[in-house]
Amino acid sequence: MVYGNVLHALLQAALEQHDFSTQNLRFHTDRILIDNIESLYFLREELNTAGAYVESKVPLLQEWANIFISSKPNAKATVKDHRGKESPIIAINKLLDIEERIWSPLYGLKGNIDATVQAIVIEPKAGRSSSGSSEKTLTVPLELKTGRSEAMEHRAQTMLYTLLMSDRYDINVSGGLLYYLETNEMIRVPAIRNELRELIIKRNHVASFILSRESLPHMLQDPHACSRCYAKISCFVCHKLLEDGDANSSGVHETFQDETSHLNEKHKAFFKHWDTLLSKEEKDTVKLRRELWSMTSPEREAAGRCFGKLVIVPEFIAVDQSNPKINRYTYSFRKAAPPADFSFLESQINEGDPVVVSDEKGHIALAIGYVFQISKTEITLQVDRRLHNARRRQKDFDEESHQVFDGIELPATYQCEPHSSPHVTETILFRIDRDEFSNGMAKIRNNLIQLMSKEAGKHRRLIVDLETPEFKEHPAAYQLDCVSTLNEDQKRAINTVMSARDYALVLGMPGTGKTTTLSHIIRALVSQGKSVLLTSYTHTAVDNILLKMKDEKFGVLRLGNRSKVPLTPRKSIRPYRC
Ligand code: SF4
């Protein structure tokens, strides 16, 4: 999985720069491995070993690029066709997007496409169209698979991506490409109507369970499939705790027993209780998110949760190349035709809020990000995706045979296209919606499931079984100046924390000095050479504590979105990184 992510990122970086040279691939390998250092650490994998493994795949990537990335297909660039048809040859001649995230309310699907590419496809003689032409330029999804074996789910995923892309690009996407790195094989996955229909029926079947939340689909009871399933822990835990299932009903006897025999009635009650609460909360937030496609922008704007009919201000587009993901692009928007009394300052959308950018034609979530600045006449966002020139058709575009769009471009500062540019010019109207569900419940629900897994023994005993935490007889030695300024309760709280073997809770009414006590606990822990993770429900609470320590010598690494962190702690705390 980790290596899969690294190789995906490597291919995407090389595609984006159109540079598969050894030097460039090495440069990105080093960078990407550092980005994945935590995952490698968990795998106990040394950087050198990881580097050597990734480097062993570089010749494969280069060979693939030599064959398939070109302005015209060459004879070697054949792709396998599953229907047993003669193989076409192709050339990928343009990159349209990387990790394109598409939400399609039309099909009830969403996905992230490894690469959206433009490809010239030359069919063998038998596949020629009635006009006799054998060459087409098509816009297609390209998926990289780092495993060796072809799998049905890869084909299903690629096929569903053709639906997503059809919805996003307003064209018929007739197929996708699957690239298997290990075998260096390219496969064409045609979008076959009947198969897509079956997949959508399956999707609707699963969605009906998620929506009702009353039950889950029956387990497959297939020992072979279940023992290899990536979701088996979650599936087994839910079967046992939500459905009162057992080894017999699971159909995978020993494996099920092995993963769930530690779970008892108390765990069941705890799990059901929190799962119900999460579902209730989820229902409310999902309802709000649905407004993105079920309400027009004027309707939602009237409720203060949206700005509609906006245009990008071209002079204020900026791309931060060093920022690979969120916040990469900065855009300012104005109302296309602002009413006389309009002000961006009068809504429920504030600086630092998470937002979703869509267009007024129903293309949802073209980018997500945060509000950076708001003035009366303009709103500036930092977002993760390119909005300018995206999905812009070129003049010789043809829906059937010449699906040509503008390619990816990453200028430091965007220059307006000259009037003579070969594009169909059209002003795109955008809408900005407050993202009511940016964090989602999936992570929280997954944490709940992981708490019930075999591996989480100690945490489960402390949190679910309420095992009494242990304390040392005396607190570990620590250094604190100005202890004299603390009252007895605060000193006792610090000593309790410094004696904890498991955890300690400090409770206090508002104004009793909890923030001060916490800042001293952090100082005491740092004096022992420890790193401290400070976390809270709100950014403000974290920053209030940090401000209490602004004169300390130790460094602070503030995690979180820059636009969420007020300027005061950023300026006051040194050294400080955000
Ligand atoms: S473990 Fe569960 S989710 Fe995975 S294949 Fe079996 S039944 Fe399906």
UniProtKB/TrEMBL annotation:
<dbReference type="InterPro" id="IPR014808">
    <property type="entry name" value="DNA_replication_fac_Dna2_N"/>
</dbReference>
<keyword id="KW-0539">Nucleus</keyword>
<dbReference type="Pfam" id="PF21123">
    <property type="entry name" value="Dna2_Rift"/>
</dbReference>
<keyword id="KW-0511">Multifunctional enzyme</keyword>
<dbReference type="GO" id="GO:0016787">
    <property type="term" value="F:hydrolase activity"/>
</dbReference>
<dbReference type="GO" id="GO:0051539">
    <property type="term" value="F:4 iron, 4 sulfur cluster binding"/>
</dbReference>
<keyword id="KW-0547">Nucleotide-binding</keyword>
<feature type="domain" description="DUF83">
    <location>
        <begin position="135"/>
        <end position="236"/>
    </location>
</feature>
<dbReference type="Pfam" id="PF08696">
    <property type="entry name" value="Dna2"/>
</dbReference>
<dbReference type="InterPro" id="IPR011604">
    <property type="entry name" value="PDDEXK-like_dom_sf"/>
</dbReference>
<dbReference type="InterPro" id="IPR051827">
    <property type="entry name" value="Cas4_exonuclease"/>
</dbReference>
<dbReference type="InterPro" id="IPR022765">
    <property type="entry name" value="Dna2/Cas4_DUF83"/>
</dbReference>
<keyword id="KW-0067">ATP-binding</keyword>
<keyword id="KW-0235">DNA replication</keyword>
<comment type="similarity">
    <text>Belongs to the DNA2/NAM7 helicase family.</text>
</comment>
<dbReference type="GO" id="GO:0005739">
    <property type="term" value="C:mitochondrion"/>
</dbReference>
<feature type="domain" description="DNA2 rift barrel">
    <location>
        <begin position="298"/>
        <end position="389"/>
    </location>
</feature>
<dbReference type="GO" id="GO:0005634">
    <property type="term" value="C:nucleus"/>
</dbReference>
<dbReference type="Pfam" id="PF13086">
    <property type="entry name" value="AAA_11"/>
</dbReference>
<dbReference type="GO" id="GO:0005524">
    <property type="term" value="F:ATP binding"/>
</dbReference>
<keyword id="KW-0408">Iron</keyword>
<feature type="domain" description="DNA2/NAM7 helicase helicase">
    <location>
        <begin position="486"/>
        <end position="563"/>
    </location>
</feature>
<feature type="domain" description="DNA replication factor Dna2 N-terminal">
    <location>
        <begin position="1"/>
        <end position="119"/>
    </location>
</feature>
<keyword id="KW-0378">Hydrolase</keyword>
<keyword id="KW-0347">Helicase</keyword>
<dbReference type="Pfam" id="PF01930">
    <property type="entry name" value="Cas_Cas4"/>
</dbReference>
<dbReference type="GO" id="GO:0003678">
    <property type="term" value="F:DNA helicase activity"/>
</dbReference>
<dbReference type="InterPro" id="IPR048459">
    <property type="entry name" value="DNA2_Rift"/>
</dbReference>
<keyword id="KW-0004">4Fe-4S</keyword>
<dbReference type="GO" id="GO:0004519">
    <property type="term" value="F:endonuclease activity"/>
</dbReference>
<dbReference type="InterPro" id="IPR041677">
    <property type="entry name" value="DNA2/NAM7_AAA_11"/>
</dbReference>
<keyword id="KW-0540">Nuclease</keyword>
<keyword id="KW-0411">Iron-sulfur</keyword>
<dbReference type="GO" id="GO:0006260">
    <property type="term" value="P:DNA replication"/>
</dbReference>
<protein>
    <recommendedName>
        <fullName>DNA replication ATP-dependent helicase/nuclease DNA2</fullName>
        <ecNumber>3.6.4.12</ecNumber>
    </recommendedName>
</protein>
<dbReference type="InterPro" id="IPR027417">
    <property type="entry name" value="P-loop_NTPase"/>
</dbReference>
<keyword id="KW-0255">Endonuclease</keyword>
<dbReference type="GO" id="GO:0046872">
    <property type="term" value="F:metal ion binding"/>
</dbReference>
<keyword id="KW-0496">Mitochondrion</keyword>
<keyword id="KW-0479">Metal-binding</keyword>
